[in-house]
Amino acid sequence: MPILSLSGITKTFGAVAALTGIDLDVEAGEVVAIVGDNGAGKSTLVKILSGVHAADSGTITFEGGQAHIATPADAHRLGIATVFQDLALCENLNVIENLFLGQELRALRLDDVAMEVRSWELLRQLSAKIPSVRTPVASLSGGQRQTVAIARSLLADPKVVILDEPTAALGVAQTAEVLNLIERLRDRGLGVIMISHNMADVKAVADKVAVLRLGRNNGTFAVGEVSQEDIIAAITGATDNVVTRRAQSQERLRQ
Amino acid sequence: MTDLETPTDLKDERLIGRQGLRGAAEGLLDRVRGGDLGVLPVVIGLIVIWSVFQALNPIFLSSVNLVNLTLECAPVGIIALGVVVVLLVGQIDLSVGSVSGLTSAVMAVFFVDRRLPVWLAILAAIVIGCAIGWVYGQIFNRFGVPSFVITMAGLLGLLGVQLWMLGAKGSINLPFDSGLVAFAQLAFVPVWLSYVFVVVAAAGLFASGYAHARRRRKASLSAVSTQLLVARSVLVLIGLGVVVWYLNQTRGVGWMFVLFLALVLVMHYVLGRTKFGKSIYAVGGNAEAARRAGINVRAVYTSAFVLCTTLAAVGGVLAAARLAAVNQSSGGGDVNLNAIAAAVIGGTSLFGGRGTAFAALLGIVVIQSISSGLTLLNLDSSFRFMVTGAVLLLAVAVDSVARRSRVSHGRA
Ligand SMILES: Nc1ncnc2c1ncn2[C@@H]1O[C@H](COP(=O)(O)OP(=O)(O)OP(=O)(O)O)[C@@H](O)[C@H]1O
Ligand SMILES: [Mg+2]
C-alpha cells in the first residue's frame, strides 16, 4: 500500500490549467522522481502536497486514509516535509531561527543552546559549508541557503520528504551528500519525492520516474527498465525533439 | 583533524578568531561597517542633542528636568512600544493617538461620570483598545486592505467617537485624590528600593549571562568569557547607579517610568526569547515563508495589531492621569507622530522584521529631550514640530542607508 497516493489532482490558475488529472503513488522506502519541462506543473504539484495551494479537485490519500491538506500546518502534521524551489527562508533571521521556524524548542523560553547543537548536527550531516549559524540567512550563498532549506525539512522526523530541485545550486560534494541523504531517507523507510532536471541524478537515486508534460501524466517508468532517451521523449512529447535532433547533429559533425 | 578544543560553532577556518574585550570591540566595529547599526545612531544622536541643549541652557541636564523627562516619556513611550510590534510585522498603525485619546475618554466617562471603581474604568479602556486592534486585524486579514488605510480611517473615526463621548463640555477632570492620578504624578520609588533595582538588574544580567555561557560550554559551543560578563554587569551597575543617584537628588524615579521600563523588558523577552516573538520577526521578514513553515500568519498580524492598540490604551490612560484630565485634544496633536517617530528613531525598520523593544525607549527619550530642550529655550511647538520632523527624516534616512549597506554586506 502506498504511503502517499494522489488521484485526479487538478489545479487551474485563472485560464491556465496547471495540472489536469494527476495520479501518483509513493511507497514507503521509495524514491520517486518527477521530471518535466519548465512549466510542466511540478512545483504546483509540490505546493498542493505541502498545503501552499489547495487542489481544485482530486483526492490525496496518506497512510491509507483520505487526507485534507488545506494549510502548510496540515502537511507538517501529517509528516510531509518540503524543500521548496524558492527555498522560502526568512532573510532577516539567522540559520538556527530559520531551521526551527514554526517548530522551536520550548515555546515560552526558547532553548537556544539545544537548537544550536541540533543545527550543527543537521548541517554536518549534509557536509554544509556554513561558517556560522548565527549570521542572517541573507549573508549565505545560494547553495548554503539550499542546504539550510534541506536541513530544515529533516528536522521534524517526516514520513514523506519532497525536494523541489534540491541540487540545482549545490557544489559537487554537497550534491553527492544530498543524493546520499536521499538514499539514507529511503533506507529508513521514508517516501521521497524528488524533482530534478538532472537525468544523471535521477538515474542515480530514483526507483521510479513520473513524467509530467503540460500539466498531465505522461508515463511512469521504473528506473531500471527505461533509457534516458525514453524519459526525454516522454518529457518533450516526441521521439523527434530538440534534444534528439541536437544529439544527431553532434553525431553527424563527428563523422 | 577535528580538535576537541575548538567549540563546534567556531570550527570553520574562514571565521576570523576574536577574543576577549578587544575582540568584542572589533566585532562590533565590523557589524557597524556592515550596516548592522543597532542602537548606535540613536545613542550618538542622543549625546549630540543633550550636549547642544545643555550648552544652550544649563537647566536642561538638571536633576529636576531629567525627572520630568522620564515622566513625560512613559505614556508615549508605551504607545511607541506597540508601534514597534506593528512595524516588526511590516505594517503600520497611524491611529495610536486616536486610540489612546478614545480609550482615555472611555476611562474618564466610566470613572468620573458613571462613578465606577477606577480599576474597572481602566480595564474597560484596555478592553476597548484590545477590541479595536482585533477589528483592524480582521479587516486586514479578510479584505487585504493595506494597514495604513485601515488605521488612517481609524485615526479619523475614533477621534470622532472620542469627541462624541466627551459631548458638549468637551473635557472631564480626574479627581486629584484618585490613586490613578497619584500614581502618574506623585508616586516615586523609595531611594533604597531604587538602588535595589539597580543591583538586581546588574546581578540578574550577570547571572543569566553566566548560566547561559555555562550551558553553551557544556554543549561545546563558544561562550562569552566570564571576564566580559563581569565587565558588562559592572558597566550596567555603574551606569544605572549614576542615573538613579542623579534622579534621586530631587524627586527620584517615578513608578510610571518603572512601569514603562518593565513593559519594555517584558516585550524584549517576548520578542527575543519566545516562539511567538520569532514568528513576529518571520512574518515581517517573509510572510510567505512564515506561512509555509506552518505559522498562522493571520493570527500573528492580528496579535500585532491588538498588542499595539492595547498598549496605546495603556499609554492613553497614563497620559490622562498625568494631566489629571481628558479633553478633546487628548491623544491628538503630536502624540501620534511622536509615538511612531520614536519607534523609527529608535531603530525599528519601516521595512519590517528588524528592531527591538528598546527602540521605543531610546526613541522616546530622543523625542522628549528635543521637546523639553526647546521648551526650556522658550521656543513654542512650531519649532518642536520642525525639529522632530527633521530628526524623523534623518532616522528614516539612516534606516534606508543602513538597509542598503546591509544588502551589500549580506546582512539584509
Ligand atoms: N501562483 C501562480 N499563479 C498563476 N500561475 C501559476 C502560479 N504558479 C504556477 N503557475 C503556472 O502553472 C504552470 C506550472 O508551473 P510550475 O511552477 O508548477 O512549473 P514547474 O514544472 O515547476 O517548472 P520549472 O521546471 O520551471 O520549475 C506554469 O504555466 C505557471 O505559469
Ligand atoms: Mg518548479
Describe the structure.
The complex is a heterodimer of chains A (255) and B (412). With 255 residues, chain A is α/β, with parallel strands linked by helices. Chain A has a domain at 4-88 and 157-238: 3-Layer(aba) Sandwich (Rossmann fold). Chain A contains nine helices and ten strands. Chain A has helices at 42-49, 72-78, 95-99, 112-125, 142-154, 172-187, 199-205, 228-236, 242-254, and strands at 4-13, 16-26, 30-35, 57-62, 65-67, 80-83, 160-164, 191-195, 208-213, 216-222. In chain A, the strands form two sheets. Chain A has a six-stranded mixed β-sheet, sandwiched between helices. The longest helix of chain A is centred in the C-terminal third of the chain and has 16 residues, at 172-187. Chain A is globular and about 65 Å long. The model of chain A has no long low-confidence stretch (mean pLDDT 91). Chain B has 412 residues and is mainly alpha-helical. Chain B folds into two domains: 46-187 and 255-411, ABC transporter involved in vitamin B12 uptake, BtuC; 188-253, no CATH class. In chain B, 73% of the residues lie in helices and 1% in strands. Chain B is built from 16 helices and two strands. Chain B has helices at 20-33, 40-56, 63-88, 96-113, 118-143, 147-166, 179-185, 191-218, 226-247, 255-273, 275-285, 287-292, 297-323, 335-345, 358-376, 381-408; strands spanning 171-173, 325-327. In chain B, strands 1-2 form a two-stranded antiparallel sheet. The longest helix of chain B has 28 residues, at 191-218. At the A-B interface, helix 2 and helix 4 of A face helix 8, helix 11 and helix 12 of B. Residues 13, 16, 18, 36, 38-44, 85 of chain A line the site of adenosine-5'-triphosphate (ATP). Magnesium ion binds at residues 42-43, 85, 164 of chain A.
